Amino acid sequence: MKRRGAVRVLLALLALPLLGELWARASDRAWYGAAWLGAPAHADLTLAEATGLRGRPGARFERWHMNSLGVQGDEAIRVPRPPGVLRVLVLGASEMFGLYESRGMSTSEQLERLLARRVPERVEVLNGALAGLTLPRTAEYCRRELARIDPSVVVYYPNPVTYLADDAPSESFTPPAPAADTFRSRFAARFALLVNRAVPQPLQALRGELGSARYVAAVVAAHPAGWAFRETPPDRLGAFEHGLELLSAALPEGGPRLVLASHAHRYHDPLTPEDARHILGWRAFYPRAEPAALVGMERAANARVRALAARRGAGFADVAARVPPGARYFRDFTHFTDEGAALAAAAFADAIAPGGLSASVR
User: Fold this and answer.
1) What residues have CB less than 8 Å from 165, skipping those under 6 apart?
2) Would you tell me which of 101, 204, 210, 213 could form a disulfide with 105, CB atoms 3.0–4.6 Å apart?
3) How far apart are the first and last CA of the chain?
4) In degrees rounded to 5, what are phi and psi of residue 343?
């Protein structure tokens, strides 16, 4: 009898992962139409072509959905754009794509509602941002895709610190190799997420800070002395400005109006003691940049964005001035909470339709 009981327990333990996997796949199917087979991932929303990156038309993953143009937004838009329509195309990386905001609360979604209250025209805000979309790839995207979308305004939210990576964003593009088609348990991923959420927030923060510190120290130790950026490197700042020039030149003469933005982040300048600990998570993405270089790059790059907007006759949304530092507005180092996204959307709305007046619709 004892042996039978042990066998039953063993069979039950073996059945639990199987049942969990079936539940995870069934819920994915019900929630967002995921296929039963395969392992859906955020990367499924991006299409890498020989000429660059764009959203994969019709792709879905969790709460994100790309329409037939490969952007987030209304499917029923008409090209060419009808008269009396204010169509805004939002471009940028993961901050604009939307990561931690609640459903319907991303910057682009809140911007659409704000503009709809301000202007008499029909408002359409399309979100063409993609996680990891660099400035050179954004300029290339504009050269290739704008005619297909026909916006009246293009909003670009840059991420200057990408120029502090070991290798700065390149103007050339090599499509990444396709991911190997291997089995990944969806149930295991959800179970791990539940376990992590069960850990008290202070312990999660401490674990993250220690892990980031160890990782950064190991990367720096593997390079020669002087490899890390202690302050903003002038050549990287110049490369960022050159990328903005390429983006501005990518918009056709007489075409959509360009609105550039300053980039906001969670940290005070100078850093508080709490900032100095938390910023290690940001530096883990850019081990070559010491905290002073990260914050200094943001400050200097934002000044360059403002100057270039004035020089080029573009609009300027001072998001960095509108979104205060701190955990209330940033879920991590640069990604917004719902409140942070609301303030960013208000900054964009002011640049597009100042004073609540009707925007110029070409």
Assistant:
1) 286, 288
2) 101
3) 82
4) -70, -40
Segment 117-135, tens digit of pLDDT: 999 999 999 999 999 999 9
CATH topology of domain 42-181+226-356: Rossmann fold (3.40.50)
Alpha-carbon distances, residue 251 vs 280, 310, 327, 345 (angstroms): 37, 16, 36, 22
What is the rounded CA–CA span in Å between residue 202 and residue 97?
A: 28
The answer, yes or no, to whether the previous bond of 354 is cis (omega within 30 of 0) is no
| Tokens found for residue 160 | 């200057």
Show Cβ contacts of residue 173 under 8 Å, excluding neighbours closer than 6 positions. 51, 52, 53, 136, 137, 140
Domain boundaries, the chain: 42-181+226-356
Does residue 98 sit in helix, strand or coil? coil
- CA distances to 13, 17, 142 from 6, rounded to whole Å, are 11, 18, 64
pLDDT in tens, 70-114: 999 988 889 899 999 999 999 999 999 999 999 999 999 999 999
Give 176's DSSP letter. P
Q: What is the pLDDT of residues 288-327, one digit of tens each?
A: 999 999 999 999 999 999 999 999 999 999 999 999 999 9
Per DSSP bridges, beta strands 64-65 and 85-92 are unpaired
Q: Positive or negative, the Cα torsion across 39, 64, 134, 205?
A: negative
Name residue, tokens 């990944």.
Answer: 184
Q: What is the DSSP pairing of strand 315-317 with strand 257-261?
A: parallel
- Check residue 84 and give left, alpha or beta (phi > 0: left; psi -120 to 50: alpha): left
Total residue length of the chain: 362
**What does the alpha-carbon distance between residue 205 and residue 201 come to, in Å, rounded to a whole number?**
6
Q: What is the value of pTM for the model shown?
A: 0.89
- pLDDT tens by residue, 178-198: 666 677 777 777 777 677 767
